[in-house]
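Students often ask what a 'structure token' actually looks like in practice. Rather than answer in the abstract, let us consider Sugar ABC transporter ATP-binding protein, a protein of 269 residues. Its sequence is given first.
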Amino acid sequence: MTTTDTPSTEDRPAAAPDTTPVLRARGLVKTYGHVVGLDGVDLDLFPGEVLAIIGDNGAGKSTLIKCLTGAEIPDQGEILLDGERVHFRRPQDARAAGIETVYQTLAVAPSLDIASNLYLGREVRRPGPLGSVLRLTDRAGMREAARRHLTDLGISTLQDVTVPVENLSGGQRQAVAVARAAAFGSKVVVLDEPTAALGVRESGQVLQLVRTLRDKGVPVIIISHNMPHVFEIADRIHVQRLGRRAATITPRSHTMTEAVALMTGAAEA
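Now compare that with the structural description of the same chain:
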């Protein structure tokens, strides 16, 4: 088996002719006392690709994502966005830079409707004194914009944006969270276990959303334990093991069995 730290041209997706990574991490280190979460991890995310991150429990997947999205501050290393070094001190910094994250817990407000969830924390004020003085939200405008976002993503099951999220299925709630990330993630969208606890049909719908984002040129990082989903959707696969990057492979260069072997240490890159 052969792997390379920087993918060759043939390993990159056809949708990403630009060889400059949108997001690049170099030498990330994160420790928690005597526990090493990350031990000099490198990562590259290219334009218009889906990069899957896989690894066993405790491999550092969540810590890596948290460092890339501002939820954690690395002790060492650097993160570059569009070639410029960035210093995220909180998730709001990453969101302001165009990096949106959908965590496994979704963080949706069940009692609010779909449109309100899409604009949660980004509510649009009504024009004029009604918005600036009375601070009234533009509910009609947000609902219309929400419909456009859902249509652009090909989500046909959520056209009534006035429905409370608590009335939706698990897959539909995931679609709302992904749609929110897609609406504001101008540079990168990160999905943490997006198909966990979903049925076959709903998982397929979420994977189609990921393809739609890629087709629109938005690079996606996806963390998943579901190897069939990873090999179905990913252009490249970043393998984490014991806080380090064990390998970077592709679904064309390796089988699922070989990927699991790298992940568990049964095989070396």
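One point worth highlighting: The first strand starts at residue 23 and ends at 32. Ask yourself how you might have guessed this from the sequence alone, and why that guess would often be unreliable.
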